[in-house]
Amino acid sequence: MNDEIVIRATDFGKRYARHAAVCGLDLAVRKGELYGLIGPDGAGKSSLMKAVAGVLAFEEGRLEVFGLPVGSEREAERVKGRLGLMPQGLGQNLYGDLSIEENVDFFARLRQVPAAEAAARKERLLAITRLAAFRARPMKQLSGGMKQKLGLVCTLIHAPDLIILDEPTTGVDPVSRRDFWAILAELIADQGLTALVSTAYMDEASRFTRMSLLHEGRVLAEGAPQDILALAPGVLVQCRVEPQLEAISRLAADFPQCEAMGPDIRLFAAGLDEAGARAAVAQRLAGLPCQRLDVMEPELEDVFVAMLSRQGAAAATAQPVSAAVANAEGLAIEARGLSKCFGEFIAVGDVSFQVRQGEIFGLLGANGAGKTTAIKMLTGILPPTRGEGRVAGADMKQAGALIKSRIGYMSQAFSLYLDLTVAENIRLYAGIYGLDRRRRDSRLGWILDMAGLHGHENDLASSLPMGLRQRLALGCALVHEPRVLFLDEPTSGVDPLGRRAFWDILFRLSRVDGVAMLVTTHYMSEAEHCDHLALMFAGKVVADASPEAMKQEVIAEAGQLYRLQADNAAALVRPLQEHGFANVSPYGAALHVLTREPERLRKTLAGMGVPADLRERPIAMEDVFVHRVSQLEAASRKGQP
Amino acid sequence: MNLKRVAAIASKEWREILRDRLFFSLAFVVPALLMVLFGYGLSLDVENIPFAVVDQDRSAASRDYAYRFIDSRYFSFRGYAANQRDAERALAAGDVRVVLVIPPRFGQRLAQGREAGIQTLVDGTFPSRAMTTKGYVTAINAAFSLASVTQAVSRVTGMPPDDVAAQLTPIALETRYLYNQSVTSIWSLAPKLIMVILMLSPPFLTALGVVREKENGSIFNIYASNVSRGEFLAGKLLPYVAISSVNILVLWLLATLLYGVPFKGSLLFFLPATLVYVLCTTGIGLLVSVLVRTQVAAMIVTMVATMIPAVLYSGLIIPIVSLGPGARQVAELMPAMYYTDIVVGCFLKGVGLQSLWRPLLVLSLYACLLFAVGYALFSKRPKT
Q1: Predicted confidence (pLDDT) at residue A86 exceeds the cutoff of 60
Q2: Could you tell me how far CA B108 lies from the centroid of its own chain?
Q3: How distant is the Cα of B207 from the closest Cα of chain A, in angstroms?
Q4: Spatial strand order in the sheet of A386-391
Q5: Does B384 touch chain A (CB under 8 A)?
Q6: Which residue out of B9, B24, B214, B220 would a mutagenesis test of the A interface target, given it has the greatest number of A Cβ atoms within 10 Å?
Q7: What angle do CA B272, B274, B279 make, to 5 degrees?
Q8: What Cα–Cα distance (Å) separates residue B381 from each residue in A70, A166, A629, B171, B352?
C-alpha cells in the first residue's frame, strides 16, 4: 500500500450555530484506501465529508486534500477537479426526469470530459454496474440499489482520484448493498482510487481497509478492522438457557453487553479468552440448564459498543417492567393472502404470516419492499385490495376502530410533537386514547420508568437525543396498554447503544408483559433479536421462519461461510466466480465465500498461487437474505427466457 | 466563463423542465391564465350601476327626472320601489347601489320655480366606486337642472332654448381624452397586467428551480465540481429567462388580440425593454433562492416580495402620484413602477427610448444590482 496521504485532517472542527457537529478530529487517509467513517446519525460524518469535498465551510483546524489546504472556497476549487462527491440520500443528487444515460452525460459535460473519453468510460462503467440495459430509463423509476450504482457511475465519470460517498448503502436492500460494495472494491482495485465512505450500518465496518468510528463529533477508534478488534479483546458467547429471563438478569450483572437474541442470549465477555468465558458464564448460570453454548470471535459492532460504553455514553438503563408474567396465549396477528395494489403496481402481493402473543416478529426488507404498506393494512389505516387480516382477535376490515384501541403503533418518524415536553406528549397520547386521570397518571409513571426518562419530564421532545426520543415514542405507543405493538423501523438513526437498550425493552415487553410485536427494520443485524422472521422482497414474503432455522436452511443449501484473508482480496472475486464460486463478496482486506466445497476452494486458491488462509465464520442474516433473493431472481430469470 | 459548461447546465435544466409536465404547464399556462382572469375580472370601470327609484310624486317631471338615469349607460334601472323602506332593504341586500328618492310635489315645486330636493342614497362600502357614482349623479342632476332652467327662461323670455342654453353656460368645457379616447379601463389595465404577471412569474420559476436543486441535494454536483458560480447561475437561469421571453410575446398577443388594446409604440424598443424587466424580476427570484432552503419557503417569500410591490406600488390600482409621500418613496425603490411607465408608454402613448430612457436605465441598474448581490451571496462552500 502506498503511503501517500490523500486526506489529512488536523484538529478539525465544524459547528452549526451553537451546536458543535465535529470537534478536535484527526484523520489521515492514504492513497488507495477504502476508508470508512462509521457512526450513527449526527455523529459528524456528513460534515466531515462535505468539508473534505470543499462544499462546506468549517471553522476549526486544518484540512488538506492531495496535500493542498482546503480552508477557503478558492483553495477548495483547486482540488475539486480531482474528486467526486456522492451526497447522502437515494439518488438525491441525480435528476429524476433524466434517463440513466442523460444523467451520466450531464456529469461528463459538467466535468468537461472529452467526448470520446467520456463515451468509452460511460460504457465501461455502465457495463460493470450492469446498468447498460436500462440506459433509457428515467432515474426516478430505478430501484434504490440502481440509483446508488448510477450515482457511483456519475461520480466516477471524470476519473477522479478521490471519491467521497456519503452513506451510499442506507436504505438499499442487502443484495444491492453487497453488489455495490463488490463494484466499489473492484473499481478501487482497478484504478488506484481512494474512497472515503460513510455508513450507519455497523456490520458494514469490516468492508473497509481502515476506518474511524465517530460518535458525537469525535473519533472513538481508528485503524484497520483487526486493530479495532484488538482495542477491546474478548470473546462472544451465545447460549440458550431456560428460563431466559432469569439467565439474562444473572448474566447482565457480570457482562454489561448482554442481550437477548430471539430464544438465545448473546454476550460479549470483555478481556476473557474462550476457556475463561465458558467458565465465567457457567459459574453465573449454575443450576440453570444450558442447552447450547457457543464461543465466537467478536464482531466490530461488539467492540464499538464496548468503546462507546467506556466513553461513559452508557444508555440510561431501563427499569425492568412489571414482574408478573402476563398470559401469552393465542394468535395476536394473522395475515392471510394480504395484497395491496396501487394501479398496476403491486406494493404487497399475497402476504401471509402469523404472530403469536408474546412473540417478536420481524418483517425484513429494503425500502420499497412493502413493509410499511403491510403494517398500514394490518393497523386498519389502509384498506387491502385482497386478503384478510386479524389483529388482537378482531377482523381488521370490520373493526377498524376496535383494532386501534387494542394496538400500539410507532411509526418511522416517531410521531412525537417536538415542541411539547416529554410529559405533555405522554398526556396527549393518553388523551387521544381516552384514558381517565388516574390511569393516565399511573401510565405516565410507568412510561418514565420503562424508558428511563426520569428527570426529563419537562424537557422538550426536540431537545432529547435520538435514543431517548425513540423510547419516548415507544412509551406513547404503549400508553393504553395495547396487547399488540407495531413498530415501523423504530431504530433508524439511533446509535448502537441506544438500539441495544431499545431492543432490551422490547424483549422484556414481549417476555414479561406478553405483548406481541411486529417490527420492521432494514438493519439485518437487528433481525437476530426476533423470535420469528419474514423476509420481504418486492412485495412478497420470500422466507418465513426463525432466524436460526433460516440460517440452517441456507447452510444446508449453499454451505458454510468462509473468510479468506489475502493480499489484494478484491482482485480475487472475478477469478473465483469464474471457477464456480458464485457467492463471493469482498470485505476490506478479506473475502467472504459461501460454499459447500471448502476443499475445492482451497485447491483452486492453491492453483492460483494464493496462500489459503480460510476460516469458518457464523452465517449472518444478511447472507440469508442475499442467498434467498438471489435464488428468487435466478428462478424468475429462468421462468421468463 | 466556460460556455460549454453553461450549455451543459442549461440543456440539463431545459430537459428537466420539459419532462416535468406540471412545472412546464405552470411556466406557460399560468401567466396566460392570469392575464385572462385578471383582465376579465378586474374591471375598474364604474358602469351599469344598479339603482332603484322611489317616486313619491308620480308626475311627468318626476318620470322625466328618473328617465335621465334610466337612459344613462352608467346606470342600470332595477325598477321602482314602493317606499323608502323597500329601497333600503334592496340597498342592504346589495341588489341596488343607488336609490333616488323623489319627494311629493316635486313636479309642482319645479313648475312654481321653487327649489326641489332629491335624496340620493349611495352604497358607500367601496369608497372609490361611491365617489364615482356620486360624480355621475351630480352630472346628471346638473344637466337636468340646466334643462329645467333653460326651459323656464325660454318660456318667460321667448328666446329659443338653444340660445338660452348658450347664455346660461358661457364657458363650454370640451374634454378630449388623450391616449385612451374612450377611457376604456382595459386599455390601461392590460399593459399593467403584463407588468404584474412578469413581476410574479419569472421570480417564481427561478426561485423554485434553484431551490429545488438545493432541496433535493443535486446542488452538491455543482458545489463539488469546478463549475464557477457565474457559469452555474448563467446556465441555470437561461432556460427560465427563455420561458419568460416566450411569455412576453404571449402576453403581448393577448393584450392586443384578446383585449384589443392598441399598441402604438415600437416592438423594437418594447421587447428589449421588457427583457430587461424580466431579467430584473428573475434577479429577485435568484436573490430569494440564495436566501431560503426549501421550495415552500421560496414560494412564500417570492409571493410576499413580488405580489405587494406589483399590486400596490406599481400604479396598477392607485396611481403613483396619488400615493402618500412614504408610499411613493417605497414605490420608487421598486422596479414595478418604472416598468409601468414603459409598458403604458409603449402601448398607449407610442413613445420610445427618447422619453423612456430613464425608467429603462433604472431597471437595468436594478437588474445588475440584483444579479451582483445574488452572485455574491451564492456560495459553493456554504456554512451549513
Answers
A1: yes
A2: 48
A3: 18
A4: A345-356, A331-342, A386-391, A394-395
A5: yes
A6: B220
A7: 95
A8: 10, 17, 42, 75, 45
B382 and chain A in contact, CB less than 8 A: yes
Spatial CA neighbour of B209 closest among B50, B17, B2: B17
Identify whether the C-beta of residue A621 lies closer than 8 Å to the C-beta of residue A561. Answer: no
Cell of B172: 363650454
Q: Identify the sign of the CA torsion B64, B70, B74, B77.
A: positive
The beta-carbon neighbor of B218 closest among A54, A83, A93 is A93
Rounded Cα distance between A12 and A83, Å, is 20
CA distance A204 to A222: 15
Bond prior to A243 in cis (omega within 30° of 0): yes
In the sheet with A584-587, reading across from the earlier edge strand, the strands are A584-587, A590-595, A560-565, A613-617
Q: Do B345 and B354 form a contact (C-beta atoms < 8 A)?
A: no
Residue A89: list chain B partners with CB under 8 A. 216-217
CB contact under 8 A, B226 and A98: no
- Tell me the residue length of chain B: 384
Q: Is B3 on the interface with A (CB under 8 A)?
A: no
Provide the pLDDT confidence category of residue A318 given band limits of 50, 70 and 90: very low
Distance from CA of B322 to the nearest CA of A (A): 47
Count CA within 13 A, CB hemisphere, residue B11. Answer: 13
The answer to whether the CB atoms of A110 and B8 lie below 8 A apart is yes
* Cell matching residue A559: 454451505
| Chain A residue numbers touching B226 (CB-CB < 8 A) | 77, 80-81, 111-112
By Cβ distance, the residue of A56, A85, A88 closest to B382 is: A56
Mean pLDDT value across residues A101-126: 94
Which chain A residue has the Cα nearest residue B231?
A110
Per-residue pLDDT of chain B in tens (384 residues, 90 and over written 9): 889 999 999 999 999 999 988 888 889 999 999 999 988 877 667 788 899 999 998 898 889 899 999 998 889 999 898 888 888 899 899 889 999 999 999 888 888 878 888 899 998 888 888 888 999 999 999 888 888 888 888 888 888 888 888 888 888 778 888 877 777 778 888 999 999 999 999 999 999 999 999 888 899 999 999 999 999 999 999 999 999 999 999 999 999 999 989 999 999 999 999 999 999 999 999 999 999 989 999 999 999 989 888 888 888 878 888 888 888 888 888 899 999 999 999 999 888 888 899 999 999 999 999 999 999 999 998 887
The structural domains of chain A, ordered by start, are 5-227 (3.40.50.300), 233-297 (3.30.70), 331-523+532-542 (3.40.50.300), 549-639 (3.30.70)
Q: Are A209 and A189 in contact (CB under 8 A)?
A: no
Q: Which domains does chain B show, CATH number per domain?
A: 3-43+184-377 (no CATH), 49-168 (3.40.1710.10)
**Would you say A515 and A231 are in contact if contact means Cβ atoms under 8 Å apart?**
no
B232 vs A contacts (CB less than 8 Å): none
Contact A98 B9 (CB under 8 A): no
Closest CA–CA distance from residue B301 to any residue of chain A (Å): 23
Residue type, A270: A
- Among B366, B344, B368, B367, CA closest to B356: B344
Angle at B346 (CA atoms; ends B341, B348), nearest 5 degrees:
90
Nearest to A95 among B8, B16, B225 (CB): B16
**CA–CA separation, A50 and A38 (whole Å):** 15
How far apart are alpha carbons B77 and A359 in whole angstroms?
82
Record the pTM: 0.81
Say whether A98 and B217 touch across the interface (CB within 8 A).
no
